[in-house]
Automatic annotation (TrEMBL):
<dbReference type="GO" id="GO:0005524">
    <property type="term" value="F:ATP binding"/>
</dbReference>
<keyword id="KW-0067">ATP-binding</keyword>
<dbReference type="InterPro" id="IPR013563">
    <property type="entry name" value="Oligopep_ABC_C"/>
</dbReference>
<protein>
    <recommendedName>
        <fullName>Oligopeptide/dipeptide ABC transporter C-terminal domain-containing protein</fullName>
    </recommendedName>
</protein>
<dbReference type="InterPro" id="IPR027417">
    <property type="entry name" value="P-loop_NTPase"/>
</dbReference>
<dbReference type="GO" id="GO:0015833">
    <property type="term" value="P:peptide transport"/>
</dbReference>
<feature type="domain" description="Oligopeptide/dipeptide ABC transporter C-terminal">
    <location>
        <begin position="12"/>
        <end position="44"/>
    </location>
</feature>
<dbReference type="Pfam" id="PF08352">
    <property type="entry name" value="oligo_HPY"/>
</dbReference>
<keyword id="KW-0813">Transport</keyword>
<keyword id="KW-0547">Nucleotide-binding</keyword>
Length: 69
């Protein structure tokens, strides 16, 4: 594999979420990943993030996407 930009490799690194999956019968308020995301804040608990395009053909639903990515 030829990589011209180290940031491209870092962007594709997968994060393994820790903790238990929430029960489908008791889904948490706000973002569905709030109980397991290491980046979660109060905003994540209070509202479902809207889907936003971060680059052509790539979208994300995260309150902190611009800050993290």
């Amino acid at each position: 594999m030829i990589v011209e930009n180290r940031n491209e490799v870092l962007a594709h690194k997968r994060i393994q979420l820790k903790g238990e999956l929430p029960s489908p019968m008791n889904i948490p308020e706000g973002c569905r990943f709030v109980t397991r995301c290491p980046y979660a804040t109060e905003a994540c608990k209070n509202g479902v993030p809207k889907l936003q395009e971060i680059s052509k053909g790539h979208s994300v639903a995260c309150h902190r996407a611009k800050e993290i990515l």
